[in-house]
Design goal:
Number of strands: 22
CATH superfamily of the largest domain: NADH-ubiquinone oxidoreductase 51kDa subunit
Radius of gyration: 21 Å
Number of domains: 4
Mean pLDDT: 91
Number of helices: 14
Helix content: 25-40%
Strand order of the largest sheet: 3-19-18-22-20-21
Strand content: 15-25%
Shape: globular
Largest sheet: 6 strands, mixed
Distance between the termini: 47 Å
Length: 431
């Protein structure tokens, strides 16, 4: 483990990190009203409500059933009364059905001693049923976890890559989970391995990860029969994308990778071992407009305003509230945006951090070309799109764009390259 992995072409340097004082992760206050979105992203299929307005629900009860591919079950994060079933517009701009539940009644999960299932007695079918029944999702993408694991189980030569890389300046969720719940993460790897039967498992950490923790990881791995290795990665955004990970590991492509984050793995562990549905999320609250960064374990459906208030409110005027990372995250229109199963960070950024400026004509500096990890020519793609030459833009590689945001971040002219590329690609997919 002496080598440092990485990709040689493109990317943005993120050497400087915001200071974070590691401390025990606390549970956030329970929301008085939980807003549940029944569609995690614009590519997923909306779950269908199985409750009605005015109905009393229990903590962890199924409130919406997923049907078919790209759909997952939704459970109530709190006990209470269903106040409203209606439509909500998400920060990503798509509309989805939502369920509002008001806190009321007794708890069936909170404060109770967790159940402990001897999962090693379960077979592959039992585990698959639990993963689907509990509505588990891969936290980084919002994809149903049972679907990802099922697809990987049909292929040979799979490598489970535990992605603990935090490539932007702010977040620490995955690293903190590795520090505080490493035994649960390793157990979850064993659960996933029961389904996927991987050739090996790779824990991916960056060069800033505490070296003293590496022997702890290896000790936990030694207690299993799994072949687990630890690889260090250079800090360069977007090193955490599947293609970049595959390149760094010396693979031809990412088809043999099953990438799971520690935050996804602890959800898997809690579902199989403690019979808990996906109703909680680890979330980083930070940014220059906050007093100090904090990681909370919060219930799904809690508004970001409640989380910010719990952390002491703003210390200054935020210029933008960003959901997830600052490069490819979404801007929140207000503080009523709910926490979802794919929310990993809420960043209250100041003008010093966002550096707002008006768009100017391209000066062909080449920064976007050097930053693109896919080797595309963003300035050329932008020129073709402005000329409405859509087919030529796709011929020039627009379809390979991962929307990582590296090109827009380095653009001196502040051209919204990713926004433009994403808009065209989404229209093409919807045809």
């Amino acid at each position: 483990m002496t080598n440092v992995r990485g990709f040689k072409r493109g990317g943005v340097s993120t050497v400087s990190r915001i200071h974070y004082h590691s401390e025990p992760i606390e549970n956030a206050f329970l929301p008085m009203n939980a807003l549940l979105l029944l569609r995690e992203n614009q590519f997923s299929v909306e779950a269908k409500p199985v409750v009605s307005e005015g109905q009393e629900v229990k903590e962890g009860q199924l409130v919406a059933r997923g049907y078919g591919k790209n759909s997952s079950h939704v459970h109530s994060p709190i006990p209470g009364i269903v106040r409203r079933i209606g439509k909500t517009v998400t920060p990503d701009g798509y509309e989805t059905t939502s369920i509002v539940i008001s806190l009321e009644g007794s708890f069936s999960v909170l404060g109770k001693r967790p159940e402990r299932y001897l999962w090693r007695s379960l077979n592959k079918t039992d585990i698959s049923h639990i993963i689907q029944d509990k509505g588990l999702m891969r936290v980084s993408t919002g994809e149903p976890l049972h679907q990802i694991i099922s697809d990987c189980s049909k292929r040979d030569g799979i490598i489970i890559a535990v992605n603990a890389l935090e490539m932007d300046q702010y977040r620490r969720v995955e690293e903190e989970i590795m520090l505080r719940r490493i035994n649960d993460v390793v157990d979850a790897c064993a659960i996933a391995a029961r389904m996927v039967k991987p050739d090996r498992i790779v824990f991916m950490i960056d060069t800033d990860f505490p070296k003293a923790q590496i022997p702890v990881i290896m000790l936990a791995a030694a207690q299993t029969e799994l072949e687990i290795s630890v690889e260090r990665f250079q800090r360069r955004f977007p090193q955490d994308l599947p293609r970049q990970i595959a390149i760094a590991l010396g693979l031809k492509d990412d088809s043999s990778l099953c990438i799971l984050e520690p935050s996804t793995l602890v959800v898997l562990h809690d579902a199989i071992v403690s019979n808990k549905p996906h109703i909680e999320q680890y979330v980083y609250i930070g940014g220059g407009a906050m007093k100090a960064p904090v990681i909370l374990k919060a219930r799904i459906g809690t508004t970001i305003g409640d989380l910010i208030e719990e952390c002491g409110g703003f210390s200054g005027q935020p210029d933008r509230i960003c959901i997830n990372d600052p490069y490819r995250g979404l801007a929140a229109a207000d503080l009523d945006v709910p926490l979802t199963r794919s929310t990993r960070a809420v960043l209250a950024l100041t003008k010093h951090e966002t550096k707002p400026a008006s768009e100017r004509p391209c000066n062909r500096c080449g920064n976007c070309l050097r930053a693109c990890p896919e080797g595309l020519h963003p300035y050329l793609l932008n020129k073709l799109l402005l000329a409405d030459k859509i087919e030529e833009a796709f011929a020039a590689g627009l379809g390979r764009c991962t929307f990582c945001g590296a090109c827009a971040y380095t653009c001196w002219s502040r051209i919204p390259l990713v926004e433009r590329f994403k808009s065209v690609c989404l229209k093409d997919k919807s045809r």
